């Protein structure tokens, strides 16, 4: 049995990642970390009732992490894979960006990853095995105008990933980051068709990515064949960078 | 063999096994520093593993860096802390 926790599991990407793990092997048990909206996670859990369960998890709250881990460890006694996927953006030019938008984006996208890694480490150290996959963003590398908060947070995730990878490499824990490009999720739902067309024109593959294509990359980094890959940053962007 | 000797031998074996040291347990002296000059050469990552291993094996909780500095000096100091926990 491999025990996997995916945060932000009610979102499009979290759903795809969770489903991919569930389809990969009947030996996988997936915990769906969810905060407020739980409808899609509940549907997925009902589809795989023996191998999938929602768990309440506001990633910005360290005591929430402790409770979630307590629940997981009480049931299975281990945690093998953590996918830090929860995140969102609140865009705006820095001159107009209010402090709340900065704080929220940094808290959810960067602090949440810190709290998550801290929460699972002692179990993974004890197991001498673990996989942490942090979902960063191409914005961390492109640093687009209007995303100072999001780009800074996601760049922070990459730096955290690489530093932590060095700290725990010898213990058998790998830590990697994935940078999705333009992916067809709810994150693009507010975009006009003109904005989507403009985005696609910047992608050498001339299409948006599918959540399943990010999920495949996550699954690879979590698999045994990826044991020697740590501190890496894998772009899933159709060739933008 | 006294209980405390058994305990110290167990701690030495735990050190070697968990930290994959290139030493035999009996080569570690009871009072030998674990970190720094004249030590068995542990570093901060080893300390991290050691804190987890002590909790798992002996129920010894080391809550903060100050406590770690005090407890993780040598096999003797670890054994004393484990005995204190057991009381």
State the helix count of chain A.
8
How would you name the CATH homologous superfamily of chain A? NAD(P)-binding Rossmann-like Domain
Return the CATH class of chain A. Answer: Alpha Beta
Helix proportion of chain B: 55-70%
Question: Which regions of chain A have little confidence, pLDDT < 50, spanning 5+ residues?
Answer: none
The proportion of residues forming helix of chain A, as a percent range, comes to: 40-55%
Count of distinct structural domains of chain A: 1
Gap from first CA to last CA of chain B: 20 Å
Keywords:
A: 241 residues; alpha/beta; Rossmann fold; 8 helices; B: 87 residues; mainly alpha; globular
Q: How would you portray this structure in words?
A:
The complex is a heterodimer of chains A (241) and B (87). Chain A is α/β, with parallel strands linked by helices. Chain A is built from eight helices and seven strands, in the order E-H-E-H-E-H-E-H-E-H-H-E-H-H-E. Chain A has one domain (2-236): 3-Layer(aba) Sandwich (Rossmann fold). Chain A is 46% helix and 16% strand. Chain A has a seven-stranded parallel sheet, with helices on both faces. In chain A, helix 4 links the parallel strand 4 and strand 5. In chain A, helix 1 crosses helix 8, helix 3 (62-76) packs parallel to helix 4 and helix 4 packs parallel to helix 6 (148-168). Chain B is mainly α. Chain B is 59% helix and 0% strand. In chain B, helix 1 crosses helix 2 (44-58). At the A-B interface, helix 4 of A face helix 2 of B.
